[in-house]
Amino acid sequence: MIPYARQDINADDIEAVAEILRGDWITQGPVVPAFEEAVAGNCAARFGVAVNSATSALHIACLALEVGPGDVVWTSPNTFVASANCALYCGAEVDFVDIDPDTLCLSPEALRHKLELVRSKGERLPKVVIPVHFGGQSCQMAEISLLAAEYGFRIIEDASHAIGGRYQGEPVGSCKHSDIVVFSFHPAKIVTSGEGGMAVTNDAVLAKRMALLRSHGITRDPQEMVRPADGPWSYQQISLGFNYRLTDIHAALGLSQMKRLAHFVERRNQLADAYDKAFSGFSIRSQRVPVDVLSARHLYVVRVPVERHALVFGELRAAGIGVNLHYIPVHLQPWYQRMGFSAGQFPEAEAYYAEAISLPMYASLGADQQKFVIETLIGLVQ
Ligand SMILES: *Cc1c(COP(=O)(O)O)cnc(C)c1O
User: Fold this and answer.
1) Which of 49, 51, 73, 80 has most ligand 1 atoms within 8 Å of CB, for mutation?
2) Is 158 in the pocket of ligand 1 (CB under 6 A)?
3) Burial class (CB in 10 A: 0-12, 13-18, 19+), 221
4) Going by DSSP bridges, is the β-strand pair 197-201/180-184 parallel, antiparallel, or unpaired?
5) Residue 53 C-alpha to ligand 1 middle, in angstroms?
6) Per-residue pLDDT, 244
7) What pLDDT is recorded for position 382?
8) Which of 170, 193, 237, 242 is the right S-S partner for 185, CB 3.0 to 4.6 Å?
9) What distance in angstroms lies between residue 163's CA and the mean position of ligand 1's atoms?
10) 272, 251: one domain
11) Is 3 domain-assigned?
12) Which residues of the chain fall below pLDDT 70?
């Protein structure tokens, strides 16, 4: 089976992990801060807070922005459930903004429209909006951040797919148009640490809050303590945090992988270009990448005619091609339907879902394998 995604592990990665296992610290050692510096440095952000998943990063990012009961967080329905669940963990409510049918990312026009409507009705405006850089391509962040200034919400970019991507000449993660940017290092993503995530920010206060929340809300820094230290053994819990720490074992893998980030993104773009070229002229639509965006190409998704969708999907799997589907719109999940969401509310995300297939996309996908995928798919839609 050719999978839809696959990690790329080389001998250096293996040696980096083995070295940690032979060393003094397997968690809370020096490699986690080195990994944080590598990622934050790569995307030109001031601070990186490494955690055990992007899900954890989204949770502490929401808490750092003081999302809580009575607040509403908006995100895209075309995402993994974690982009929305993070608000529920904080006791807030979730709502969605439909996608642009060409870029498949949260539509700035739909966002403006919804903000105007909510304001005109005197309803609650969002405290935080979480745009999702679907497939590895940045949302139109300049437009979204103008709306943030006008309507007074904060922004967390869910860049789980997008490390190594660029928007308007800046690396994704620069936080130029947002408060916090979150990355995932799950093995299906561009760079992996096994499991892992990171929140990057330019705001020292947010970075400090997230670092505390990652580890029980405990500080050992006398400057942060709320009363004088009892002694040199002292630590104080000053907020209610979690154990969301990343280990040095995971960080070593992530740090080693970061050296190949540019190569991964380049190779993924070559594969995407080859797919684009092969499918032009057939009834196979892909994701439009705006001219000011360099996609990291986490996913290569196509839309096939809705009446053949299930058949094409099944035949690809039967041919040994491990296609997948990103995403079932979050508001259609039973958990969200129980909260009152229903089919028909976000028609662009639903129309896309009815036609979507994620094709194999990873750095080590071979030219022959890709040719087989292309020929099989074209044979099925003709
Ligand atoms: C993978 C993913 C997450 C969650 O990442 P984990 O590191 O697995 O917690 C969140 N949002 C999006 C868009 C993702 O694709």
Assistant:
1) 80
2) yes
3) exposed
4) antiparallel
5) 8
6) 98
7) 85
8) 193
9) 12
10) no
11) no
12) none
> Nearest CA to 58 among 191, 187, 213?
213
User: Is residue 334 situated within a structural domain?
Assistant: yes
Query: Across the beta sheet with 154-158, what order do the strands follow?
Result: 47-51, 197-201, 180-184, 154-158, 128-130, 72-75, 93-96
Q: Which two tokens stand for residue 162?
A: 């997008």
Contact 359, 312 (CB under 8 A): no
Residues 163 and 283 in one domain: no
Reported as half-sphere exposure (CB side, CA atoms, 13 A), residue 78 has a value of: 31
Strand partners, 324: 358
| Domain total of the chain | 2
User: Which residue type occupies 378?
Assistant: I
User: Which domain, by its residues, includes 352?
Assistant: 261-381
Residue 186 Cα to ligand 1 middle (Å): 7
Tokens linked to 124: 């609650």
CA of 231 to the centre of ligand 1 (A): 41
Which atom of ligand 1 approaches the CA of 326 most closely?
15
Q: Is 219 in the pocket of ligand 1 (CB under 6 A)?
A: no
∠ CA 114-135-348 to the nearest 5 degrees? 35
* Ligand 1 pocket residue status of 82, Cβ below 6 Å: yes
Which pLDDT score, from 0 to 100, does residue 47 have?
98
Residue 184 CB less than 6 A away from ligand 1: yes
Q: What whole-number distance in Å separates Cα of residue 358 and Cα of residue 313?
A: 9
Which atom of ligand 1 is nearest to 134's Cα?
13
Does residue 164 sit in the same domain as residue 205? yes
Calpha distance 322→316 (Å, rounded): 7
